[in-house]
Structures are given as C-alpha cells and as structure tokens.
Amino acid sequence: MLASLLNQVPLFTPDDVEAFLPLWKKRYTVNRGDFLIREGQVEQHLYFVESGALRLYLPTPDEDICVGFAYPNTLITSFPSLVTQTPSLYCIQALRRSELLAISKTDFDLIQEKRPVFGKFWRMELEKALVGKIEREVDLQLPDPAQRLERLLRRSPHIFQLVPKKYIASYLRMTPETLSRIM
Amino acid sequence: MLASLLNQVPLFTPDDVEAFLPLWKKRYTVNRGDFLIREGQVEQHLYFVESGALRLYLPTPDEDICVGFAYPNTLITSFPSLVTQTPSLYCIQALRRSELLAISKTDFDLIQEKRPVFGKFWRMELEKALVGKIEREVDLQLPDPAQRLERLLRRSPHIFQLVPKKYIASYLRMTPETLSRIM
DNA sequence: GCCAAACCTTGATTCAAATCAAGAATTACA
DNA sequence: TGTAATTCTTGATTTGAATCAAGGTTTGGC
Predict the structure, then answer these.
(1) Is A65 exposed, middle or buried (0-12, 13-18, 19+ CB in 10 A)?
(2) CATH classification code of A2-115
(3) Main-chain phi, psi angles of A4, to 5 degrees
(4) Which parts of the chain span the membrane according to its record (chains A, B) (predicted)?
(5) pLDDT per residue rounded down to tens, chain A (183 residues)
(6) Contact between the CB of A32 and strand D at under 7 Å
(7) Interface test with A, best of B60, B67, B81, B141 (most A CBs within 10 A)
C-alpha cells in the first residue's frame, strides 16, 4: 500500500524504495477516540494511514480548533512539534479504528542525508503542503459559510464520507447547525 | 544586507554565500501601487525585500483577500505559481516605494542541484513557512476578532508600523471599522 | 508646505450566524 | 440485534460584526 504509492514516485528507483520501506518499522492500530499524540508530547514520528480516519486539532479552553484530517494513503504528524522538537500544541485523535505505519524522525533525517533523492522528495512534499495551506488560508477568509463549504466540497469531497460533519463544521469555522442548514 | 543575513546561516560556508549572492542578479525599484506580479502571470522569481512594504493578495469579485505582507529582510513570491509554474491567482503590490533583489527560479533550482546545502537550506525555509501557516490557520479560525488581533500583535507587532490598517484588517478577516474599534 | 487622496474613527442600523433547545436519525459495540 | 451514545436536523431567539454614513486625520506627491 505504502509500497505501491512510493513506486509511483518518478524520483525513486526501485532501490530507493527498497531502502525506504524497512524504515517504516512501527505498525499502530488505534481505536476510535485514541490519541496518536497529545498536547505537551514531542512528536517523534511521521505516520502513514493505511485505514481509518483521524483529526488533527488544537485544544483550547473554549473549543477544539480542527486543522486537518487524515485518511487512507495520507501522511499525518504534529508537524510543528516534529520539526522543532518542542512540545506539541496539537492533538491527533482517531475518529474510528485506524491502522498506521510510522517512521521515526531520526530514520527519516538519516535517509535524507544518505540519499539526496529523499531530501528532494521531502522538499517537494513540503512545497505541495505549503501550496495547500495557502489555498486553505484563502478558504478560511471567505466570509460566506456556503462559499467555504463549496471550496471544500470541490477540493476534498471524500472527507464528507469519512469524517463526522461536526468536525468538518469546525474545520470550516462554522457551527454544526450552520453546516447542517447549508448542506 | 542580504549578504549579512546569509552569513548568519550556520549551514553556509563563506564560499557558499559567495556562490549564491551573484545569482540575485536583478534589482527592482517599485513605486507605491506597482505590481511585482499580477493574476495570470507565471511567477519566475523569488524576491528579497531591501526596503519598503508589499502585500500579497487574492483578488476576488467582491473584495481582495490579503494573505501576507513583506517588509525589509523578508522573502516574497507568488509561491504556488513559482512552484507549479502555472498562472498566478495572486497579486503582489507595493504599499510604498520598495527596493527588491530577485533570483530566478532557474538559478535557484540550479544551485540546489549543484550544492546540496542549498537544498537543505530551502527545505528548512519551507518547514519554517509551513509551521507559520499552521499557526496562521489557527489564528484565522478564532471566532473572536480581538483574539485574532492579539495573536498578530504578539507575533508580528512591527507590521502595524509598516502596513495601513485596512490591509491588516483584511488579513485578520474583519472590516477596518471592526479593527479600529478593538485597537 | 500645500493640496488632494487615502486612510481612520465613530455612531446608528441591519443581518446573518451563533446560541439555545428539543427531537430524530445514525452509529458503535456489547 | 438491541440499546446507549453520538451525531444530525430543525426551529426560535440572541448577538456581535458588517454595513452604511459622515467627519476627522494622516499621508503622498507636486
């Protein structure tokens, strides 16, 4: 599953993929409600979702602020904590039973040093992620809830199959009631 | 100015800096209101601001959506267009007379191929930018305008000296009237 | 230094989304 | 499969930011 995805990356030779796969050492199975990481912990892993669905959010006194979802064939991590190796402000919680593969930061850093192609790969992933966040920034600024919904429907229609609407509402910065009324 | 900044990057040897600096070939001076790039053009440069101030925004039928500012010692570009080499959706406009240095995408890509340390440097810059955008994503979701203002004041107080409040209001997804009332 | 343009402030009013509330539907899992 | 917990929907009401409006201030450019 991860293997077939990596084989589709033009950058990688079969040898690269062979060197990479064994680094995804840990296999996690988490139940609905379980946490991959909680506020205060330092993120050590990058996760690949094989099945299930998860949410990434910032807990605040008032309410959780949902900043992302993960589902099969996507990566997830508490990125700021992973990069800076400081305690995470964010939590990652399973929305249903999920299966994940994990690579440690250490191993990931090492292979980037050893094989420049992985440095390039990661740079391209970061560029894609940044482009995504810039679009998201625009989405969040749209004053009309219906427009925000429309853009998410266009960009990630599958999310609506995978994630309870109340979390999507939070992600779209509206109440579940408002989302229900405009869907 | 750019030189002294680059010399402070621990990654770089003096030789790296010497190889890099000449690639910032073009020097632009733009007047208040001028555009570095307009919607539809394909971004070819990464810009370094020596003086002045600029805004990066998405023009829409209703209103401009402000997604960022640049000021001395910062980089700016229409990132999605630069990365994907497709027509830009965004505009970059000078808010006052500004002086910039520019490096072409071609030269920037080349030096990353030639000297791996520049690949690593860019990767780290992208990581920082992504962390920033994740924080910004949280900022934008805060329902209370005063909270959004507070977080910007904490993170980038200097912006209020450099940029007319009406653009800051847009960046904070509120009207100039609301910003005026809570400042 | 002067003038026009741009920007900011303050007040009155409107309106759309949040809140509050309660019942219906769906989902988890024992 | 049955039952409790969770999630979703719909309606009534409130509220706070947007809008509209007008006067004051700052800024840019000649």
Answers:
(1) buried
(2) 2.60.120.10
(3) -70, -35
(4) none
(5) 899 999 999 999 999 999 999 999 999 999 999 999 999 999 999 999 999 999 999 999 889 999 999 999 999 999 999 999 999 999 999 999 999 999 999 999 999 999 999 999 999 999 999 999 999 999 999 999 999 999 999 999 999 999 999 999 999 999 999 999 999
(6) no
(7) B141
